[in-house]
Amino acid sequence: MSIDKLFREGHLKKIPPSIERADKSIATAERYLSEARKTLEIGVHELAIIAAYSAIFHAARAILFLDGVGERSHFAIFEYIREKHGDLGEELVNSFDLFRKLRHSVAYGLDTHVSQDDTEGIIGFAEDFISRVKKHVGSRKGEKP
């Protein structure tokens, strides 16, 4: 689905660009990542996956805040990042979508079972995603990586 259609349907909307909100979103992403790690340590994989995805989600929102875009849909964030920020890398964007779908299945499915490997995979991805988003946001703010 095109982001133009997502704007027309209200899944995305223009808002004032905000470095402050981008920074807060990254801080929130880092808190969720910490919670995902703690939850993995005690073996609660489903909640660790939800926390890790929340970290990814908030990191992605940082980019939107910097661009002056608000969202009302996880899918809309993915589509916006894919279309407007493909420079983050196709593999990164595709993995974001894969983990978006996994989180949805864990949160809403009735028969979804996840393994230690699944959980470690999404946490590792969240670490990488947050790191890359921080560099991306920092370079747009004029900071040195």
Question: Describe it for me?
Answer:
The chain starts with a helix and ends in a 5-residue tail after the last helix. The chain contains 6 helices and 2 strands; from the N terminus they run H-E-H-H-E-H-H-H. The protein has one domain: Nucleotidyltransferases  domain 2 (Four Helix Bundle (Hemerythrin (Met), subunit A), Up-down Bundle), CATH 1.20.120.330. 37% of the residues are buried. The protein has helices spanning 3-8, 19-41, 45-67, 74-84, 90-108, 116-140; strands at residues 12-14, 69-71. The mean pLDDT is 91. It is mainly alpha-helical. The chain is globular. A two-stranded antiparallel ribbon has the order 1-2. Helix 2 (19-41) packs antiparallel against helix 6, helix 3 (45-67) runs parallel beside helix 6 (116-140) and helix 4 (74-84) runs antiparallel to helix 5 (90-108).
Q: What does the secondary structure layout of this molecule look like, with pairings?
A:
Blueprint: H1 3-8, E1 12-14, H2 19-41, H3 45-67, E2 69-71, H4 74-84, H5 90-108, H6 116-140
Antiparallel strand pairs: 1-2
Largest sheet: 2 strands, antiparallel
CATH fold description: Four Helix Bundle (Hemerythrin (Met), subunit A)
Structural class: mainly alpha
The low-confidence runs, each spanning 5 or more residues with pLDDT under 50, are none
CA-CA gap between termini: 33 Å
The shape, in one word, is globular
Given this structure, which CATH class is correct? Mainly Alpha
Q: In total, how many beta strands?
A: 2
**Strands side by side in the biggest sheet:** 1-2
Rounded to the nearest angstrom, the radius of gyration is: 15 Å
Content of β-strand:
under 5%
The H-level CATH homologous superfamily, spelled out, is Nucleotidyltransferases  domain 2
Q: How many individual domains?
A: 1
H/E topology pattern: HEHHEHHH
Please count the helical segments.
6
**Helix amount, in percent?**
over 70%
What do the pLDDT scores average to? 91
